[in-house]
Structure formats: C-alpha cells, structure tokens
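Replying to the earlier thread about multi-chain prediction with a worked example.

Input:
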Amino acid sequence: MKETGFFGEFGGFFVPEILIHPLEELEEAYFTYWEDPSFQEELAWYLRSYAGRPTPLYFARRLSEYLGGARIYLKREDLNHTGSHKLNNTLGQVLLAKKMGKTRIIAETGAGQHGVATATACALLGLQCRVYMGAVDMERQRLNVFRMNILGSEVVAVRSGSQTLKDAINEAMRDWVRSVDTTHYVIGSVVGPHPYPTMVRDFQSVIGKEAKAQMLDAEGRVPDYVVACVGGGSNAMGIFHAFVPHEEVKLVGVEAGGMGLQTEKHAASIGRGAPGILHGSLSYLLQDEFGQVLPTHSVAAGLDYPGVGPEHSFLFESKRASYVSVEDDEAVDAFMLLSEKEGIIPALESAHAVAYAAKLAPTLSKEKVLLICLSGRGDKDAEEVMQYRERRGIR
Amino acid sequence: MKERLQEVLEQKRKEHKLFVPYLTFGYPSVPDFLELARICAEEGVDALEVGIPYSDPVADGPVIQTTSYRALLQGVTPLLVKETMEKTSLSLPLVAMTYGNIVFRYGVDQFARDFSRAGFRGLIVADFPLEAKSLLAEANGFLEVILLLAVNSSPERIARIGEESKGFVYLVSGKGTTGAVDIDLGVLEKVVSILRSCTVSPVLVGFGIHSPSRAREVASVSDGVIVGSALLDFILKHQSERNWKVEFGKLLREYRQALGG
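Result:
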C-alpha cells in the first residue's frame, strides 16, 4: 500500500492477508483515476445527466419560522436519483471497477438504500451484482429488496449474528475473499479498510462542494452549523469535508440514540463506544469489555451499525466535530414535522439530523444559519413509521 | 524456560510432516474442549491451535462461525480461556488464534504476559496483515507472533512475511474462508519455494484441508498442515452419538498416519 490510511490514530487496514493484493490494486486505481480529468469528467457527466446533480439547496422557510430561531437550509440529497446520497458513491465505485476490468460487483446493505444504489449503477454500467442483506433488514425493508430484484441484482439473506448491516458486511467480505480476481466490493459507507474511508468520502464530497457554493450564493457566507446523521457516516463526511477547513463552521454528527443511551438499545458508536477494530479499521466501536461487538438498535435501519467511519473518530478526538444522539421517538417526530411543515418526507436516518436541528434552531438567533444534510427520502420508511405509531397508540 | 515453538517444530519436522489441529475453545463445552485437547496430545499432534471466539469472524467459513457463536453463547471470554488453560497442563505446544479486537481490547502487553503464563507459545491474529504486526510488538518475548501468508501475496511480501513470522509461517491454501478453499498444489509449491530461499521457519498450510488424503497432498509441498473446520464439522455432526470422542481420536490418527509418525 502507498498510504497507511490513518486519520490520526484511527483507520488502517486490518484484513486477512488475501485481501491485501486487491486493496493495493484498488488504492492504485483509485489514486490514478481520481486525479484523471477524463475520469472526473465522465463521473461528473453521470452525476449531472443521470443522477440529477446538483441537488438543490432549499431554504426551509416554514420550518424555520415554526421553530423560531436559526434559518434552516436543507441540502436535498433525497432528490438524487434512487432517493438518497448513496448513488454518488456507487456511481464512482462501479465506474472505477469497470475501469479496473472487474466484471462482478458485491455490496452490503442495511436500509437497502446502498443496495438499491449499487444495483442501479450496475444496471447502468452493465455489471453483475449481488447484494448481501441481513434477514432482519430484509423483513423491514421489503420494498427495497424488490427494487434491487427489479434492477437485476441478486439479494442474499444473511442469517448469521444479528442478521443486520454488520453481518451483511462480514458476509460480503467473505465473498470478496473468494472472488477477488473478478469482483469489486462496493462498500457503502466511510468504513472498512483503507482506501475505502478516503475513497467513499471523496465520492461523497460532491455534497459539501455543492452545498458550500450554493450557501455562498444564498447567504453570501458559510453556515454556522452543518448537521448530518451518522451511522457509518458517509453523508456526514460528504457534507463535512468541504467545511472542515472553515473553522468557524460547527460540524455536528447525529448518532442513533435508539431507545436511549442509558439502555443497550442504541447505535451511538462515538457516544457510548470505545476504540476497537471492526471491518478492517480502527475506530469507535460498541463492544463489551472483552472486545465482542455488541448488538445495536435504531428505528432507522441505515444507522443500525456498531461502528463508525475512522475519520469521524478523528474529527471527534480532535474536537473539530461534535457528536450527539437523537432517540427513535424524536426521529419519528421529526419525520412527521418536516413532512407537515415543508412537504418533504425525510428518510428516518435523515430525520435524526432534522430532529437535532429542531432542538438546536430555537436556541439560536435569526442571524444564524443551519445547514442540514437531508440524506434521503422517506418513502421506504412509511410502513415502519405507520407501525411505530400504531405501537404507541398514535393515529 | 519452555522451548520456543519454532524450535519444537523444527525438531519434529525432521521426523514427520507436521499436524496441527485447530479447536474452538469452549466448543461443544469447556470440559469437552479440554478432553478433546487431551486426545490431541495423546494422538501425537505437533501443536494445538486454540481459537478464542470473536463475534465477527470474517476469515471463517460456516463451521467455525457456528462453533465460535455457540462458544460465545456459553459465555466464553478471553479471560476464561486464560484462567482455564492456566489450570490445565497439556503436553503439547499451544497457539492462540483470534481476531485483532480481542487482543487489542485485552491490551497487547497484558494478553501476551497472561497467555504466555497460561502455557501458550504462539499467537495468530487472523485479520492482522504484516503492516499491523507492529501493534503486537509488546508480545515479543512472551508469544511468538505467527503471520499468515496468502497465495496472492507478492514475492516481496512472501519474503518479508517469511522473515518476520515467528514460530512458523501460516500459508493460507487458496482464496476463501476456513473450510472451503480450492487448492492448487502448483501455486502452493511456488510460494513455498520462495519462502525456502529466505527462511528456515516451518511452513504450515491451513484452510480447506478437509481429509487425510488432502492433508498428505498438501504436506508433500510443505512442512505440514493445520486442520480446523474438518475436525469441528466432525464434532458438530457426531457429538450426540455414543463414543464420539473415541471416533474423534480415530480421525486424528488417520491424519497423523497420512502425515507420517
């Protein structure tokens, strides 16, 4: 490897030796193509004419007035093709895989958004695709399973461990060990061994690049706060990256508080975890005293993950970003709030960012500007929210 | 002072091909595991790999995933492994095999001291490649850190891993997880020949050694084999039968005979 892939003390590549060769190959290809103007041009063309970028920056006037404080802007990744920011990364990686001569793509998925985005990019670019998905997640995200099938991908149910995202990654890594010669593994977040955290961040950095330019247009300055939800943390790294050098911009990552951090049912890796090694990198991790990875919970399947991208751990330790958490109830309330006030149904993942912003905004003056990364749309969550409200007797 | 693992194996390879079983600690139960370990000693295996179960074993196939999962359900922890083995005397060299986070969380220095005291001589960390070895530096003097080598490692890496691996070199037989690998003897032979030019360490091949005849073939191009999934699969399938431990002993004998000695 050319680089060690560390962000401060976090990151690296902790993988079986058999994966070193494909990771070296990937690092080499990634560094080469990322600097190659013709690759950038081709990717930009797909992002523009296929994915529909740039996505709008939207001033949420009614929500801002209702909350009575900071002016709230939404970066509308929900309007990206397939309904979330995930396609930014999968278009980049699948295009790269094609340049590398790979004929087969594998991916993991939690909520199904990354699986759908991968299946979409594979249909577009003509590659074979298999998606690993926890059996529990398949049950709660049936619509996305069907979408992947329509797009020509095979979805494999993972029944080991907790049968969620973490186990889907384990299974995808096992597939990759067997199939390295022909196959590229499209990791969906800023997690995994080097070069994934860097590469996925770079492919997602288009979010922050656009948002910064749009913010300068709209307000003539950078925002005071940037708020994004964090599971593995790809939409957050994507929007944070452009603002990291602007020290006056406060960056806030919102983790899944589930049923409360005092319970064992949450997914707050930074809030309640400790440094550990999972899926190839060293980062904050929810684990027991002996290093066994703990089960997690969130109403948002896409945040239901015990780890977090190593660069987030670095931003946390270096105090450049802060990390808070929002519970299931608050996220569902925010899901309703944004729908009612703005006519935008957010993904439950993104609703975590909305929920925190809704708490923060009233404490700030009208001069302050708050930017939320609205990472995905909530159609996929309609059934989940309906059941959630029924369980709590809300009509 | 106990003899170093590497010296033991270098001596034994003069007599026969090396046979190293892998068992998951605490599977099917802690007393059963200890009895199986004793049977291994009686059947003249050359060392025993003791798997310390981890919740997310990405290098393992279905069999070892199952045995690890069941051991964890029974409350197996690294501390229990250490305490149990401290109280047990086995006349064979022990090697701990686990994943990075187990050692990292325990504390590398403490792990190395504790497990050395409990009778272990070697340590294998399945998800630590050569570059991560520096994180295990504190194990030096307590445990011999055994590195894994793959069939797709570059010649430069093969040489470096050969030089830096202590105890023996663990050559993974092909592309796959434990228990399921298509083995190409020609490829193995090439890797071993590069290793021979840079190290005297014994070279053991593991992953996918599913039968005594396969063990003999693979040993013909190396110093011996590590057998895990095939043995654990036998236990998974037969543990409800009478005399299954006697049959397990017979299976070990078949491997032993196939490898000489």
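The mean pLDDT of chain B is 96.

Feel free to reuse this layout for your own posts.
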